[in-house]
Structures
1.
Amino acid sequence: MPAYVHVNLRVIDAAKQAVLAPRFQQALIEAGGKILYFGPVVQTLEGDEVPLPLAGVFEFPTLAQALAFYNSERYAPIKVERQEAQQARMFVVETPS
């Protein structure tokens, strides 16, 4: 069952983000993930909380692969850099069988 990681973010250090982005993309692909969307939030449809300006949706074949990527040694240094370059909210969902 596919799993989807959603991130809502604001870039706080553009230079760090520019260096980080290709490394993140390569690590994601190597872990079996793919980027379905990364770009601006277009409109809030419901809720009182204002979203951060950018959003990303990443697909993995399984929840186990998504979590393995997030907790991997390969992603660990990228995660530290991402947390310095971005303010983010992130969660994962799994589609039902």
2.
Amino acid sequence: MKKILINFLILSFYSFADGEAGSLSLDKDINEDRKISFPNTKEYLVIVSDLHTHSVFSDGHVWPNIRVEEALRDGLDVLAITEHLEYQPHIEFLPNKNRNDAYKEALLANKNNDDLLVINGAEITRIPPAGHMNAIFIKDANLLFNDDESNIPLAQELLKQYPEAASWEENKTIRDYYALTSVWPVEKAVDAAHAQGGFIFWNHSWWTPQSPQGISVLTDFHKKLIQENKLHGIEVANGINYSDEAFQIAIDNDLTIIGTSDVHNLIDWDYSFYKGKHRPVTLILSKGKSENSIKQALFEGRTVVWFKNNLIGLENNLLPLLNSSLSIKSLGYQAGTTILEVLIENKSDAKMMLRNFSEYTLSQNTNFFEIDPHSKKIVEIKTIEALKNIELIFSVENAFIAPKKNAQLSFKLRI
């Protein structure tokens, strides 16, 4: 109750600070440094998105307009509101009959901001093997769940079948409602999202209630959805967790690679910007900023995840992003030496961790060195003899094109 009161006070401040309830205006003095920034590639715009967030309309602890304010502060281009349909821990004081209300509240808060696209979504929540799935770009979340009281006998059987259900919630009202909505076949929820043209992805597949070992395993249920083209993506990063196994499932099954915050509290409580942290995001390589362009990019798998300063994606998506983020030019040889100076510039928010795989050794660094975000670094290379052309090869140690496999960049320079 104390958390709810604190967030109500924060909500009140944000809602009325500019004199208009429900509408947010971004403070001009907000530190621009906290905004997530990656350069566009030669072919695509880089869209910064968080596709998995919660508010008090399910099990989050803030009003939806706080999510919008946080997204504006972090420089997001896309924010998805994805409340649990079945799990409603606040149902006694927030009945939430219309599952689109959280999205509507976020839209209202965002009405004066052109830079942020707020999209409608929902989280389909089931016991294993289905687990949790997000459906985004949906039109009506109400069609994805069913709380018909005629299903109460089935819900009671579910509670008997799973003794551990008693630990779902101490509150009987919440537990019984979760059971009632969970007995509606998950396939019907997925079909309803699919019929609306929704993009559906599998959430935190390594979640221990589903996999006690913390290992993502592709189930027959998910295989069937993939075969029917009803499962389009999978989270490889969620909150503070990452899964190599989920990354491999994405590669093997042509699923779009997703990374999300899954935020429930204030974003700054979970990802302290002042401590150098950032929320996990999905960088979408899109032809435009329209909803249709972004949606098409997701369906076509053009994404890179930024998680704890790691960049994760398929090679054909990650290399163009790295090549647009890093540039290199020759400054020539130091006078009277064959020590070549090159200037490397990092135009991205990621600290780049580079390992030298060239045939040449470095003068002031070991084979490993770092370049801070939005900065330049002079690197000295011992070429032994004066050259007119050179090829430099670096492995980006915090960029992954497959589990445990780093991206490599090659730069050909004219001296």
